[in-house]
Amino acid sequence: MYGRASGSEENAISERRLCLIFNAKVRNLPIRLWSIGMQPFRLTERRARSGSLEILVEGEADLAVADQLEQALSRAAAQCEEVLIGLQRCEFIDSTAIAVIVHAHNKMKAEGRRLAVYGSSSQVHRVLSITGLTENGLVFATLDEALGNELRR
């Protein structure tokens, strides 16, 4: 009863959230996404190991927050040899946020450094799979896998 919602239930819940957001915007009401079950966007940084910074993404990574994500990745890339992006609490990712991650990955790779993504939810993982990013050594299931792959760069 209190388990995970099925695919159709998740779609219905998402549709209700979108209707609530749309109605609030049309009526110029303040929107608090977390009050209707969505997490606000937040980035948390922590050291994974020496020379490595982990950035944890929470909420929705989309056009509205792409600049924040890009700035965090740029700062991390300037400080570290390795950047790990944790998506365990990321509920949604759009093409803008994916482009920011891919750009940072390509830039770091060209400089002999590394960026890896790990821990995506099933919905986010589905989007990453469709784009082909799960096939090129950028996306991993766990932090341990992402850390362990450094030897296979």
Give the low-confidence spans: 1-5, 9-35
What is the residue-averaged pLDDT? 81
- For the terminal residues, how far apart are their CA atoms? 44 Å
Radius of gyration: 17 Å
Number of helices: 5
Specify the CATH homologous superfamily of the largest domain.
STAS domain
Helix content: 40-55%
Supply the CATH class of the largest domain. Alpha Beta
Strand proportion = 15-25%
Largest sheet: 5 strands, mixed
Structural class: alpha/beta
Which CATH-level-2 architecture of the largest domain? 2-Layer Sandwich
Instruction: Going across the biggest sheet, name each strand in turn.
Output: 1-2-3-4-5
**Silhouette:** globular
Order of helices and strands: HEEHEHEHEH
CATH topology annotation of the largest domain:
Transcription Regulator spoIIAA
Q: What is the total tally of β strands?
A: 5
Number of domains: 2
